[in-house]
Each structure stands twice: as structure tokens, then as C-alpha cells.
């Protein structure tokens, strides 16, 4: 019996080790209560929040990866008639452009007011891997926690958000949704503040047939400079 | 009758400035609503460009803009 289990493990490992690329579809949930917390919501904005929640939940996001890099983006869907503004907001809230990760490089490609930016992100998260175990779509997953630190571009206050990730060591690629990376396995579920990503379809390929074109267009800018420029514009907006 | 006419004239004279003052107050209030909304969403880690869009939406709601005008704020 022991030998049989050993053989099965060897076969499984051998199959997984042959994976050279993959495509994951994630669904998303948006919890506006995380943002509002104890704040009394403006009654005028209640319907907007509901519309944004509905649009987020209608959207799908895709992560494609190969031996070299990964690309994550949200699939544009047709907005509901009444939700045009909420639709564009939802797309931005879920993914904020396209996220490319290659080893230690992380670029967020996005358009703001018709201008393309290649934002060089520095997202080194010190993950804390726990012993919590679960199953997602037939894969054994482990829970990890990390913290994202940033400065509020308008108030200037330092902020911190706790990130929770469930990753599958059997899929030996350290990528995930929205540019999150650095775990010893693919992230199949991720909670990032008000947004949670859930892996729905997992397609793994033994041939490296998914090409990722590393972005070269647009203005290259650091995340700090991007936040500062947009923050200055926001302060003068009203 | 003279008193009534005087009062009526006074109301007519003051009405435009009252309206202007109310408008100014409403606008300032809406600016605060918009800025608070923007900061709230930035604190949640939402990208600044989209947080700003939510702030503009809040401003438009507060000012009572039409649905079409509001759609323009985030397009």
C-alpha cells in the first residue's frame, strides 16, 4: 500500500513538474462594508455602491502564465444599461489595468485620461505561510498572510491592508491575481481589502503555448510618482 | 399696506443673494462630500484614478446631476 501511494505521488509530481503554462479564470466579490466600516454612508451613494457591487460580480478576470512571466487582466463585459459609470468603476476596482510579473519585475500597464502609463510597482510582500489547509478545485491549498503598505495620495496618511492568499504548491508557479506573487505556488484565492478573487477554471498546459508580450508602450513611471501626480490632481479637482 | 409693500420689496431684494448663498453652501458641502469619499476609497487601497472617479460621482450625486452627467464623470 505504501509503495502504491509513493508511486502515485511520484506520478503526480512528475505530471505537475511538466506544466509549462496555464490560464486561470477568477470570479470576484466586492464587499463595500470593508471600505465604509463605521462610516455612515451618504444615502445618495447607496445605489452607486450597489451598482458597483453588481458589476464587479458580473466580471471575470484571467491570469495567464508561462515559465517566464504572468499577465493578469479583467475581461471587459457589456455594462448593464443603468450601470455605465459603475461598470467602468468596477473594472478599475478589480484590476486597475493589466498586471505583468516577471521574476522581480512588476509592471502595471494602464490608461488614465487617454495616456498610457507603465507603472513600475514595488510590491514585495513578506508573506507569512500558515498551517491552515483547504481544497480549491481539487488542489490542496495553504493559507498565507501579508501586508500591503502605502500612502493615501490625498490625505498623505500611511495605510496598511492585510492580504490573505490561498496558494497551491502543486502548481509550482509563484503568480497570482492583480500582480500578487512571491508564494511557493499559484494563488487560487486572494482577499485584497474589499475585493476577493476565486479561481473558477484552472487550465494547465504541458507545452509553453501561452505567449505573454512584455509591455513596452507608454510612459515608464514609478508607483510613488504616479500616486503623487494623480494625488495632486485629486486635491485640485474639487 | 406700506409696511407690507416694504416687506415684499425687502424679500425681493434679498432673494437672489439668499439663493446665491445657499448655492455656495451646497457646493462647499458637496466638495467636502467628494473629498471624503475619495479619501475613504484611497484608504481601502483603490487606485487613485478610480478613487477620484468615485469622488466625482459623489459630487455629482450631491449636486443632483442627471444620470447621464454622472456617467460622464467616470468615462
How is this structure best summarized?
The complex is a heterodimer of chains A (238) and B (75). Chain A has 238 residues and is an alpha+beta fold.
Could you describe the 3D structure shown?
The complex is a heterodimer of chains A (238) and B (75). By secondary structure, chain A is of the alpha+beta class. Chain A contains five helices and twelve strands. The longest helix of chain A is centred in the N-terminal third of the chain and has 16 residues, at 2-17. The termini of chain A are far apart. By secondary structure, chain B is mainly alpha-helical. Helices cover 85% and strands 0% of the residues of chain B. Chain B is built from three helices and no strands. Chain B has helices spanning 2-43, 48-63, 67-72. In chain B, helix 1 (2-43) runs antiparallel to helix 2 (48-63). The longest helix of chain B has 42 residues, at 2-43. Chain B is elongated. The N and C termini of chain B lie far apart (58 Å). At the A-B interface, helix 2, helix 4 and helix 5 of A face helix 1, helix 2 and helix 3 of B.
Q: How do the helices and strands line up, and which of them pair or pack?
A:
The complex is a heterodimer of chains A (238) and B (75).
Chain A: H1 2-17, E1 21-30, H2 32-36, H3 46-58, E2 60-66, E3 70-75, H4 84-95, E4 98-102, E5 105-112, E6 115-120, E7 128-136, E8 139-151, E9 158-168, E10 186-192, E11 195-205, E12 219-222, H5 223-235
Parallel strand pairs in A: 6-12
Antiparallel strand pairs in A: 1-2, 1-11, 2-3, 3-4, 4-5, 5-6, 7-8, 8-9, 9-10, 10-11
Chain B: H1 2-43, H2 48-63, H3 67-72
Helix pairs in contact in B: 1-2
